[in-house]
Design goal:
The complex is a heterodimer of chains A (872) and B (124).
Chain A (H helix, E strand, L loop, with lengths): L1 H14 L1 H25 L4 H12 L2 H11 L3 H19 L1 H29 L11 E7 L6 E2 L3 H9 L4 E16 L2 E11 L3 H5 L5 E2 L14 E5 H8 L9 E4 L2 E9 L6 H4 L4 E4 L4 H5 L7 E6 L5 H18 L7 E6 L7 H35 L1 H9 L4 H37 L1 E2 L2 E2 L7 H27 L3 H7 L8 H37 L9 E7 L8 H16 L4 E7 L9 E4 L15 E7 L3 H5 L3 E4 L13 E5 H8 L8 E2 L2 E7 L16 E5 L7 E8 L3 H11 L6 E5 H44 L1 H9 L4 H37 L8 H27 L3 H7 L1
Helix pairs in contact in A: 2-3, 5-15, 6-13, 6-15, 6-16, 13-16, 13-18, 13-23, 14-17, 15-16, 18-23, 18-25, 18-26, 19-22, 23-25, 23-26, 24-27, 25-26
Chain B lengths: L1 H16 L3 H14 L5 E2 H11 L8 H14 L2 E7 L5 E7 L1 H27 L1
Antiparallel strand pairs in B: 1-3, 2-3
The chains are: A alpha+beta (872), B alpha+beta (124).
């Protein structure tokens, strides 16, 4: 009954506010009348009696307000009133509102978008059922943060020894050569997986079946499961596909199933088209050094991650004891949702997120300043409200409501900015021609925007509100309607905010400048070989057809012969790799006869297997000795060619020709090469080459100097073997461009943050200087009346802005230095510390400052002394 | 004589205006106390407190009405419009069931406290 009563009363309070007010009014009026009557009865005359009664009762509105505040449900009512009032104030000042909302929308939008990217990259939602139990396994070493994959015997140990996994599966990226009658051979990306892979992830096939238990045994693996997108593209979504035989790597393989589109988790699997069971050779089963398997597991539902990790630690310790040849020291379980990025990439992503935070900070500082200026102008209003009995908390709440309302509007608009920016970002991250990052609006993103909105609303609203509520009523009323809270402390605060804004913007700008300029310089660095005028193509000969060295060598020889006679071809060579990203093979080495030369720690070197004329074709200088010839074949003594850096490091001024490393005789020294497609760190400065004939391989790159259509290469290969495709044939320059494009995305991203920051900082300076001019109109009038010239006034205003901006710039340069060091540690390959960038950035900041001050300065100079003085 | 009362009165008024939990509670208790006998309107409540305390306690309107709204909100009193002695429309407040129970509890604990404080003061 009582609950009901309360409920009714709070509902009435909300909706029957007017009626309640009227009742309150009547009740109090009747009180005063009764008192008047009592006074009359006590002998006063009626006028006196009424006056005394009214006086005694006190300020009726104030009492009514206190009464209202006694009721629960009252906060909704007063919030509504505050919101209503706030909305009215914002409408009254559309310029302020527009600038604030836009500033916030940009600042919040960028951050929300970055948050979505962060979430997609670091902790993304999985489409698999019960994703909480899905983990990826990594091998770790104590010395490095790098996480590595697994060897076959290690994987088999995890699987057979006792563990907490419901399933554990291994997978390996592989390119398959797909050929079909009547269609050109095509290289398709696929995954080799163990049979447990599908039940582990828990998604049923769309058509047919997945692998059965023993299909990952040798000889039984001639089955394949297709990806939905690949099935649509290559087989036009044919529902009779099950049972069809296709040619993969020259083998006949039966299609047994098609997986639905949602199974294809691109961050986990990469851009795959099909899945095939993996089989392990006896050699792979014995070799613990060959770590190529990715390993995923589903932890039993009743076991926690911590427990599973503990048992895995024990297993790792046992394995380290049993197999000293294991390079890994530990095993780490990482939730699948977080596992798609290696630790160093995670650092980069977090740094970018942090830099986006800079933009939001600048936006907030800007808004705080705008609020300052506005509350200063409204000082009179607050003073009057204070004098009428509004408690300070009430004024504070009112101002905060206004800030939060602004933030909310900005937040809503920021979602638009964020979706737009997400769409842009998503298109930028491309791997093998496919978009890998799909960034869409989701609940978490909206949640983030909401939290960021509220926090920034508080951040930019609290201090000005507090200052305004501190207004001395008397002083404010005496000073008139303008410029009341613009005392020293507030000026100092405003200036500090501007300096901070400039410093943050400059740091961002310098960081972006260093990255963009670094990439430019990097692209122009002499790589030590001639990139232009070269056509390249990647080939992978399948083991099943070209298992032996002789078969591989024969194919390479025939290919070179055919290509060499084509018109337009000047030179042709084949190598394991080209110096684009890095050489694929590294190994440790010792110098024969000089065991002490390396201080007991075997240094590592790049190894590249090349055919004769490789140096000529690429344009690499031969410094000393000779190139390989056809005589350096499998039967001839093992020979090696080293680069200049290595020659200097180990033989300094003496000639290394005739010396031996790992038993191979050094026959030549060539110039160093750089890897123009990779600004990241290279593992070693030592580069060595061996004759392809002495160490052939099935995976290699063809390099053609001259004018050749990429299709010609494809054509020649198809003539040699119709099942054999060529991977991304094209110019070396284009290949580098594709790689650097992804790096460019980072530079552009930083650049857009920087310009956003610069724009906001400029806006902030403009706001503060405008406020300064308005407050000093009188003073400027006096100065002009006393003979100040136009340029004196301009300088007075611009000088003020410039002073703040220069302090900010100086601080920002320190920040930029720190950022440059951070970048240097993440991208050591990038040329850094360009004084040109710093000069440019500093100049840009000053130019923006002058531009931002120009308009208020001009307004100040246009002040009519008569008008200004009369206004005082 | 008048001087003494007015200084007391100022002090009380001052204390009631302060939003100290204890004193707010005391004013609430006084209101509940005077409403025990019969429903009264706001003016009568103030008069009654003054009268019963021999003019020692005077409740300012600035405290009285907020207290009345507070007590209503707590559900201890309820109000309805009625005719006053001299035929004026006035809002009458009366105790609810819970209010009545409350006032018994309050009065009992007040007695105990007065007794305890009294003993301490006398012994000192």
């Amino acid at each position: 009954m009582q609950q009901y009563h309360k409920f009714i009363s709070s509902i009435r309070a909300l909706f029957g506010k007017r009626k309640l007010d009227a009742e309150m009014d009547e009740e109090m009026r009747s009180h005063v009348e009764m008192r008047t009557q009592a006074n009359i009865n006590a002998g006063m005359n009626p006028d006196e009696a009424r006056y005394a009664a009214t006086r005694e009762f006190g300020w009726r509105e104030s009492i009514k307000e206190t009464c209202r505040e006694q009721r629960r449900g009252n906060w909704i009512e007063s919030l509504w009133r505050d919101l209503h009032f706030a909305a009215r104030m914002l409408c009254k000042n559309p310029g302020f509102t527009l600038i604030s909302v836009l500033t916030l929308a940009l600042g919040l939008g960028v951050n929300t978008s970055m948050f979505t990217a962060l979430q997609a990259l670091i902790s993304r939602p999985l489409t698999f059922p019960e994703p909480g139990g899905l983990m990826q396994l990594f091998q770790t070493t104590s010395s490095s943060r790098r996480e590595s994959h697994h060897s076959v015997p290690n994987f088999l140990d995890y699987k057979t020894q006792d563990n907490d996994f419901e399933f554990i599966a291994a997978m390996n990226d592989k390119s398959f050569n797909l050929s079909q009658a009547g269609q050109p051979a095509e290289s398709v990306r696929g995954l080799q997986t163990t049979a447990d892979f599908f039940p582990l992830l828990g998604i049923q096939p769309e058509l047919g079946r997945v692998f059965v238990a023993d299909e990952d045994q040798a000889g039984r693996n001639n089955v394949v499961v297709l990806d939905h997108g690949f099935w649509l593209r290559r087989f036009a979504g044919d529902t009779n596909i099950i049972g069809r035989v296709i040619r993969l790597d020259g083998e006949s393989v039966t299609v047994v199933g098609v997986m639905p589109a949602r199974f294809h988790d691109i961050m986990l699997m990469g851009p795959v088209s099909l899945w095939r069971p993996i089989t392990f050779t006896d050699e792979q089963r014995a070799n613990r050094g060959f770590q190529f398997l990715k390993c995923i597991a589903r932890v039993r539902p009743e076991v926690s991650r911590v427990q599973a990790q503990a048992r895995l630690d024990a297993l790792a310790a046992r394995m380290a004891l049993d197999h000293p040849d294991n390079s890994a020291e530990g095993l780490r379980l990482v939730p699948l949702a977080e596992a798609s990025l290696p630790p160093e990439a995670r650092t980069i992503v977090w740094s970018v997120m942090g830099l986006a935070g800079f933009v939001l900070l600048i936006a907030c500082a800007n808004l705080a300043n705008l609020q300052f200026a506005r509350t200063a102008r409204r000082g009179g209003e607050f003073a009057i409200r204070g004098a009428l009995g509004a408690p300070r908390a009430r004024l504070l709440r009112q101002l905060l409501t206004e800030s939060l309302l602004l933030a909310l509007l900005g937040g809503l608009l920021s979602l638009l900015v964020a979706s737009w920016s997400n769409a842009m970002l998503g298109r930028q991250f491309v791997s093998d021609g496919e978009t890998v990052l799909s960034l869409s609006l989701n609940l978490k993103m909206i949640g983030f925007a909401l939290v960021a909105t509220t926090l920034s609303g508080l951040a930019f609203g609290l201090v000005p509100a507090w200052l305004a509520s501190r207004t001395e009523v008397n002083a404010a009323l005496k000073q008139g309607s303008r410029g009341t809270t613009s005392d020293q402390s507030q000026n100092r605060l405003q200036h500090t905010l501007i300096i901070a804004e400039v410093a943050l913007a400059l740091t961002l700008l310098a960081g972006a400048g260093l990255v963009i300029r670094g990439l430019q310089v990097f692209a122009k660095l002499d790589p030590g070989w001639r990139v232009d005028g070269m056509t390249i193509g990647y080939l992978t000969l399948p083991e099943s057809k070209y298992g032996s060295s002789a078969a591989q060598m024969a194919f390479v020889d025939r290919l070179q012969e055919r290509l060499a006679v084509l018109p337009g071809v000047e030179r042709i060579a084949v190598g394991w790799t080209l110096p684009l990203r890095q050489f694929n093979v590294t190994g440790s080495f010792t110098i024969d006869g000089r065991p002490d030369s390396t201080n007991g720690h075997a240094p590592s070197r790049f190894v590249n297997g090349i055919t004769p004329h490789y140096f000529e074709t690429l344009g690499i200088r031969v410094v000393a000795g000779r190139d390989f010839t056809t005589a350096d074949n499998a039967k001839a003594p093992a020979v090696v060619i080293i680069n200049e850096t290595m020659a200097h490091a180990f033989w300094s001024e003496r000639s290394p020709i005739g010396q031996r490393i790992d038993g191979e005789e050094i026959v030549g020294v060539v110039g160093d090469v750089r890897f123009p497609a990779n600004p990241g760190e290279q593992r070693t400065p030592f580069q060595t080459y061996r004759p392809f004939a002495q160490s052939p391989g099935g995976i290699f790159t063809v390099a053609i100097r001259g004018v050749v259509q990429p299709n010609t290469l494809r054509h020649v290969v198809t003539e040699l073997d119709p099942d054999q495709p060529v991977g991304s044939p094209g110019s070396a320059r284009a290949d580098i461009g594709t790689s650097l494009d992804n790096w460019d995305v980072g530079g552009k991203l930083l650049g857009s943050f920087a310009f956003l920051g610069l724009f906001l900082a400029g806006l902030g300076i403009y706001g503060v200087i405008s406020g300064f001019v308005i407050r000093r109109t009188g003073e400027i009038g006096v100065r002009m009346a006393l003979g100040a010239q136009l340029h004196d006034v301009l300088w007075l205003v611009i000088g003020r802005g410039l002073r703040l901006s220069l302090i900010g710039t100086a601080i920002g340069l320190v920040g930029a230095f720190g950022l440059a060091r951070l970048l240097g540690s993440v991208l050591p390959g990038l040329p850094g510390g360009d004084p040109l960038v710093v000069t440019f950035v500093g100049t840009l900041m000053v130019a923006i400052t002058i531009l931002a001050c120009w308009f208020p300065a001009w307004r100040a100079a246009k002040v009519d002394p008569m008008v200004a003085l009369r206004n005082e | 004589m008048g001087g003494v009362y007015s200084s007391l009165d100022i002090r009380w008024k001052h204390i009631f205006m302060e939003k100290t939990e204890l004193l707010q509670g005391t004013l609430d208790m006084l209101i509940l106390g005077v409403l025990r006998r019969k429903p009264l309107h706001g003016f009568a409540i103030a008069e009654r407190i003054k009268q019963l305390s021999d003019d020692a306690l005077k409740v300012g309107e600035g405290s009285l009405y907020p207290a009345l709204y507070r007590l209503q909100d707590k559900g201890w009193i309820e109000s309805e419009w009625g005719q006053s002695e001299n035929n004026r429309r006035a809002k009458y407040y009366k105790l609810t069931k819970t209010g009545r129970r409350r006032v018994e509890v309050e009065s009992e604990s007040w007695d105990k406290m007065c007794f305890a404080i009294g003993r301490i003061m006398k012994s000192a």
